[in-house]
Amino acid sequence: MCVEVWREERAEQSRRTSSGSYDSYEELQQNFHSQGDKGWEPQYSKNLSGNRPEEKTEEDWKMEKAVAEVEVSSIFIYPVKSCRGISVSQAPVTPTGFRWDRQWLVRIGNLLKDLNLVLQAPGMDVLKVSLSTPKEIADGVSVWEWSGAALDEGADASKWFSDYLEKPCRLVRFNAASETRPVEPEYAPGHQTMFSDMYPYMLLFQESLDALNELLKEPIPINRFRPNILVNGCEPFSEDLWTEIRIDKLTFQGVKLCSRCKVPTIDQQTGIAGPEPNDTLKKIRSDAVLRPTKKQQGRVYFGQNLVCRDSLTGGAGKGHVVKVGDLVFVLKMVSSAEEAAA
Question: What pTM was computed for the model?
Answer without folding.
Answer: 0.73
